[in-house]
Automatic annotation (TrEMBL):
<keyword id="KW-1133">Transmembrane helix</keyword>
<keyword id="KW-0812">Transmembrane</keyword>
<dbReference type="GO" id="GO:0006487">
    <property type="term" value="P:protein N-linked glycosylation"/>
</dbReference>
<dbReference type="GO" id="GO:0046921">
    <property type="term" value="F:alpha-(1-&gt;6)-fucosyltransferase activity"/>
</dbReference>
<protein>
    <recommendedName>
        <fullName>Alpha-(1,6)-fucosyltransferase</fullName>
    </recommendedName>
</protein>
<feature type="transmembrane region" description="Helical">
    <location>
        <begin position="28"/>
        <end position="55"/>
    </location>
</feature>
<keyword id="KW-0472">Membrane</keyword>
Length: 588
């Protein structure tokens, strides 16, 4: 009965609507409405042709500095539009919920656009402005700041200033002013500030590459690093009393970067003991097309161990027979292999290794005393000095790695903090002085807390006890029990089976470099050869530096690579983060 009444009611309503639609007054209203639409369209068309902006795409004229967001200091406010993005929006149904929020699909589209646009700026060949605009519908200067990327060009400029003596042999500006703040223009006109910055290094100043207090680093780290720099940068390299030790990096087949660093640490110890300036020569791992300006040199990746003046003088003396006879210059062949690998640790600072902080955990116990404590302390100091400043190339490698791992998360974070209409409406505010000279010194963003884990397996079994990935994760769980907000892991390993096993831990976020890994058990030399020199050098260095910057570290002290990572962390303000190792060093 009820359905019949409902159909009757619908029929009556339909007939009534038909009658109204055919009435003269309704027709007049429809015609009037259509005429109004036509007149409005005509008015907008005329306005578009005369004005500086158009409502058709809601595109506003803009002025742009055309700079990359990593180098931009534009003082012009831009309000521009992405026509490409708008056309995509028109093709996609959009809706807003009761709280006024855009659907997830639209958010994902904005995140993808920003992530890809940032990534384009990191390519080997950065696209021209016109190419970039055509591809993304955006200008480079319209992109929001990149929290996870570093301004590599600026960092290299600042670091060069901090690593170079100024006129008349004056000391670099190692004051209490940090990074870019030393370049603040107002200090160049204020006589008191200029005088302060030009003073020789004092007891209160310390090398700017050291992070944290004395208590947060190995004993005497700040003093030792300062003394090594002074030793390696004499005021006058042509002084006849200056002696040199020139040595290539180890290049025997099968020697990894860790072994090369350990060998150079021994040569630096010899140089300090004999009061010689160490000058490094050929570095085979930089012999690839990525190191264009510094082919075959350590300077492709890190700042050189001494000044260019001393290097020129040393290579000049190499051809001087008398200099060799007098001992003014020596080479690596002047020493036996054992003298290099087990070099006597310099005693000019006493024996600070005798009171190393016991922060290394093995099998649930802290290791307070062990064999070769002096070597552990010295290698940490030597490697920290050799890797004190990254070059623009190395900085770029880290930018690419961070963007691949964290780019999407960074984009989500940035988009949540800016206008939700981006990129339809983009506002670029002028960069303030605090952004340019103070906040620019902050390290790039990574999701924290971050645990770095280096899982060494494969042919390393011939040198140390190798354990399964599950045991590394047991240690990770121990850290998480104390720091329950820990869930991010930067994983470095040469084994594909380790990567595969990460699927068994869905509550952890694993990040790792995208590189071909070993399947089965082959030698490290064979594996590196399969990758090529460029990849087999770049990706381990990225993993190494990411481990140094991480909040926690799990590794195997039986691995030289892990041993050196631990040393870099203990001279980089990370002593109190501790170190969980799955085994002991093989010499303990």
């Amino acid at each position: 009965m009820e359905p019949t009444n409902q159909k009757f009611l619908e029929r009556v309503v339909s007939q009534k609507a038909l009658q109204m639609g055919s009435s003269f007054s309704c027709q007049i209203c429809v015609v009037g409405f259509l005429c109004g639409v036509c007149l409005t369209s005509l008015f907008l068309a005329v306005l578009t042709s005369v004005g500086t902006f158009g409502f058709t795409g809601i595109s506003f004229s803009s002025l742009s500095m055309g700079n990359s967001p990593l180098n931009s200091s534009s003082e012009i406010i831009n309000v521009i539009t992405s026509s490409d993005y708008q056309s995509k929006v028109k093709e996609t149904a959009r809706w807003v919920d009761s709280k006024g929020r855009e659907p997830e699909s639209d958010d994902d589209e904005r995140v993808s656009l920003l992530t890809e646009a940032w990534g384009a700026l990191l390519a080997d060949r950065e696209p021209e402005e016109s190419e970039f605009s055509k591809r993304f519908g955006l200008s480079k200067s319209s992109l929001p700041n990149t929290p996870h990327l570093e301004n590599c060009k600026l960092s290299a400029q600042v670091n060069k200033r901090l690593d170079t003596r100024s006129g008349a042999g004056r000391f670099p500006p190692w004051t209490t002013w940090k990074g870019s703040l030393n370049m603040y223009p107002a200090t160049e006109t204020d006589e008191n500030l200029r005088s302060f910055k030009d003073q020789p290094v004092s007891d209160g100043a310390y090398p700017p590459w050291i992070v944290g207090s004395d208590e947060e680093n190995y004993p005497l780290t700040r003093k030792v690093q300062s003394d090594i720099w002074i030793h390696q940068h004499p005021v006058n390299c042509h002084d006849p009393n200056i002696k040199f030790l020139v040595a290539d990096w180890e290049k025997l087949p099968g020697f990894g970067i860790g072994a090369q660093l350990a060998g150079m640490a021994g040569l630096l110890a010899i140089a300090i003991n004999e009061k010689r300036v160490l000058v490094t020569g050929y570095f085979n791992r930089a012999d690839h097309d990525g190191c264009k300006a510094s082919h075959g040199s350590w300077s492709c990746y890190f700042f050189l161990e001494t000044s260019q003046e001393c290097r020129d003088r040393a290579f000049e003396l190499i051809t001087n027979k008398e200099a060799w006879e007098k001992g003014t210059i020596k080479g690596k062949d002047s020493y036996k292999s054992k003298e290099i690998w087990t070099a006597k640790v310099p005693r000019v600072w006493g024996d600070p290794w005798s009171y190393l902080q016991p922060t290394t955990d093995i099998n649930g116990s802290l290791i307070a005393v062990h064999h070769k404590m002096d070597r552990r302390w010295w290698r940490a100091q030597a490697v920290r000095y050799l890797m004190r400043f990254q070059t623009e190339y190395t900085c770029g490698l880290l930018n690419v790695a961070r963007h691949a791992a964290f780019g999407k998360e960074a984009a989500k974070m940035v988009l949540a903090s800016i206008d939700r209409d981006w990129p339809k409406v983009i506002t670029n505010q002028p960069k303030s002085e605090i952004e340019e000279f103070v906040w620019s010194n902050h390290r790039p963003w990574v999701p924290r807390p971050l645990l770095s884990m280096h899982v060494r397996m494969g042919d390393k079994a011939c040198e140390m006890k190798v354990v399964k990935f599950e045991e590394y994760m047991e240690l990770a769980h121990r850290i998480q029990m104390h720091f329950p907000h820990l869930k991010n892991v930067w994983l470095s390993t040469e084994m594909q089976e380790v990567i595969d096993k990460t699927r068994s831990y869905p509550h952890w976020n694993f990040y790792y470099t995208n590189v071909t890994r070993q399947v089965g058990n082959v030698s490290m030399a064979t594996y590196e050869a399969s990758l090529g020199r460029k990849t087999s050098t770049n990706y381990p260095l990225v993993n190494f530096l990411m481990a140094v910057e991480s909040d926690f570290f799990i590794g195997a002290l039986g691995s030289t690579w892990c041993f050196l990572i631990d040393g870099m962390r203990n001279t980089g303000g990370k002593v109190m983060a501790g170190y969980l190792s799955v085994n002991k060093d093989r010499f303990w």
